[in-house]
Amino acid sequence: MSEALITLTDDGLYCPVGGFHVDPWNPVPRAVVTHAHADHARWGCGQYLVAAPGQHLFRTRLGETADITPVPHGEPVDHNGVRVSFHPAGHVLGSAQIRLEHRGEVWVVTGDYKLDPDPTCLPFEHVRCNTFVTESTFALPVYRWEAAGVLFGGVNDWWRANKAAGKCSIVYAYALGKAQRVMAGVDATIGPIFTHGAVEKVTRAYRESGVALPPTRPVSEVVTEEKAKGKSKAKPWAGALVLAPPSADGSPWVKKFEPKSEAFASGWMCVRGARRRRAVDRGFVLSDHADWPGLLTAVTESGAGRVLATHGFASVLARHLREQGLDADVIATRYGDDAGEGEEGEA
């Protein structure tokens, strides 16, 4: 085998030939980044190379002064003889797999990804390679996602029942990606949709990127409006859907929505114990990561003879792939299974 296109350093995944890092966890001179969640897009790098569909999100996350170069999907960029290109990962808006080619050797670093359809981002693209560096957040056979129609049918039924009871429906969903997917999936004719400030900020970047989403209003805007009208005891939340990050769960901020019913949207809700620990009324199994069948399909379709599994149940996935005859191993990274946007993760 030729020299490795990716090695692991104290700053993260590094391409020594190209002279750049992929999703570094410390500030570095040149970063090629898969997506805008904070555990992959660290602040303070000298230069960022990103997939063009995510440029508004990266600007929102990294600030106006960050040196960000957007690149269209599939368009190769040369770095010291390494051909770098971005290919849709289906994780969140602007998420991309990174394809590296040098002297006939091809590696693909997936970042986070899913194969399930999602109207808020481009679908996952199978990219052939020699070495496939894959996430493994949900790499256990128990993790299998149900069809979107079934999932959101359940969310809509819960919302309607709460509305009939005069309650507010609160869904805790990560501000970047998950909240927008909930917006796009629910029946917005049931009632108004209100947003926490963290969710609204990211939602604006989605709209600027051309993603169609139903109308939303920031909770803070409604509170200010009600106070100006002298309606401090008014309850505009009854029958509404409120989308908030997990950090809002149990905070003083949510008390205003009484009476309310609370739900958490995450792939971890597939396990009953996780639902109990969250202490919410409902747990909806909604993930922006690939489930067990999705991971195996992605590996197979890559055609890779070598697979490196990162963050999550990496050792389980690697062992399973070795049993199938592949050269598979674990590469230790610091990407968080529950870390995505400061206080919000993206599982």
Automatic annotation (TrEMBL):
One of its GO terms (molecular function) is exonuclease activity. Keywords: Exonuclease, Hydrolase, Nuclease. Gene3D superfamilies: Ribonuclease Z/Hydroxyacylglutathione hydrolase-like (3.60.15.10). The keyword Ion transport does not apply. NCBIfam families: Xnuc_lig_assoc. This is Exonuclease: RNA procession exonuclease-like protein. The lineage of its organism: Bacteria, Pseudomonadati, Planctomycetota, Planctomycetia, Gemmatales.
